[in-house]
Design a protein that fits this description.
Number of strands: 8
Radius of gyration: 14 Å
Number of helices: 0
Number of domains: 1
CATH topology: Jelly Rolls
Largest sheet: 5 strands, antiparallel
Strand order of the largest sheet: 1-2-8-3-6
Structural class: mainly beta
CATH class: Mainly Beta
Order of helices and strands: EEEEEEEE
Amino acid sequence: MALSVTGFDDSSLSYKIIYESVSTHAPVKNATGTSGYIHSIEINNAHSSPIYVRMWLNTTDITLTNGGQSNTAADITYKVPATTTDIIQIPSRLYYTALSFASTAASGLTAVATPGGTVQVTIVSS
């Protein structure tokens, strides 16, 4: 994992860009360190199979075991087809208190499997 969080300010609103260059089943917990709003999510799946990006909006109590199960079902799960980049725009914003996320190759509600290829996740928040 190579998580980077960069902030920038506009005269009316400050934003954060959260970028995970290699998203795996190991969860990024409380990525911004504070509460905020998600404005958009970009997921780049370079893998030859679909992947699932799971997001938790209000908890850091997450344990994911490769080949096993998650102890906490995600609030949101996005399926991204093989070799595809999806961009999800959220015009009305999505509130979080502790933004956490992970990527998995397993489709079940709490099933976990490490993606076989590179998955990049970029989130714009305020």
